[in-house]
Design goal:
Layout (H helix, E strand, L loop, with lengths): L1 E5 L7 H13 L20 E5 L5 H7 L6 H6 L13 H10 L7 H10 L6 H16 L5 H22 L9 H13 L9 H15 L5 E3 L8 H4 L4 E3 L4 E4 L3 H4 L6 H10 L12 E3 L5 E6 L1
Parallel strand pairs: 1-2, 3-4
Antiparallel strand pairs: 4-5, 5-7, 6-7
Helix pairs in contact: 1-2, 6-7, 7-8, 9-12
Length: 295
């Protein structure tokens, strides 16, 4: 296990951020062959990464013309520290003074991990982390929210063990610090991607706006549907509604949610018109069989 700390993430090419997040989190490289055709050993790692930047990861993704995906949001939670108080000159001086100490706290910390049995019983440590995940995310949280809580749980458990080892002072409120960080993350823009259906609807809205002229065809009153209408990429519109092809709903919504879950979300938000029990309609205003969702 290693720690990767990177500063000024804003200097990174925004297009590289998404792949970087998954590269660090996936923990394994690609299978490759050597010059003689033999399969090389796959590199693996277990890294806890921290990044600092003056702009959020969601903003960086926007610069690249992309929307942050759920998988990226749970792997790189952003904590906004903009509202924190300024560091005083005395505190800066204390930090500088500590630089004169060339020792480190890893040795007593690791010694305690062995002494407490965490190394010989990794399942026990995993259980402690899992308990912290539930404590932070809530017992009713879904799998996505629990995945997002893992980094915060790791920090909470690591901090508690450090106190037990005498590395951190007992008066340091580790629980309060991780709770503050968690709520900062939930209130940030990145956490919106945790709602897969909400993220899907936002993606669909952006795609429709971008292709309004080229990919949607306007239905004229009392007009049959010529081939030009049948070939409309996303669907059709008139003065009352937008008609999205049934087969295109998932594609419009990107990678978030399933067609059924997206349609249900549209209905719950009062955005979907259903004439029958099904969420979609088969016939397009007397113009023939053109399965679609009416918004």
């Amino acid at each position: 296990a290693t720690v990767l700390a990177m500063d000024e993430l804003g200097h990174l090419d925004p297009k590289e951020l998404g792949p970087l997040i998954f590269l660090i989190a996936q923990g394994a490289g690609k299978a490759r062959q050597s010059a003689d055709g033999a399969l090389r050993a796959i590199l693996s790692w277990n890294t806890f990464g921290t990044f600092s930047s003056e702009v959020s990861s969601a903003e960086l993704m926007k610069m690249a013309g992309k929307t942050m995906l759920t998988g990226q949001a749970v792997r790189l939670p952003t904590i906004d520290v903009g509202g924190m108080r300024s560091v005083t000159p005395n505190e800066f001086a204390a930090v500088e003074a500590h630089k004169q100490n060339y020792g480190h706290a890893w040795r007593p910390y690791i010694e305690y991990l062995f002494k407490a049995g965490y190394v010989s019983e990794p399942a026990r440590l995993r259980a402690v982390v899992d308990e912290a995940v539930l404590e932070i995310s809530g017992s009713s949280a879904d799998s996505t929210l629990r995945r997002a809580a893992i980094p915060f749980a790791l920090l909470r458990v690591a901090g508690k063990i450090a106190q037990e080892a005498g590395v951190l002072p007992d008066e340091m409120d580790i629980k309060a610090a991780t709770e503050w960080a968690w709520h900062s993350y939930l209130n940030g823009e990145e956490a919106q991607a945790l709602d897969s259906n909400g993220h899907a609807l936002a993606t669909m809205r952006e795609t429709l706006q971008a292709g309004w002229v080229s990919d949607l065809k306007e239905l004229q009153p009392n007009e049959d549907v010529p081939e030009a209408y049948r070939e409309a990429r996303w669907g059709w519109f008139d003065g009352d509604s937008i008609y999205i092809r049934k087969s295109k709903l998932a594609e419009l919504a990107g990678s978030g949610g399933t067609p059924q879950s997206i349609a249900k979300e549209l209905k719950e938000r009062g955005m979907l018109k259903c004439r029958k029990r099904t969420l979609h309609n088969e016939y397009l205003k007397g113009r023939g069989t053109l399965p679609h969702y009416e918004l």
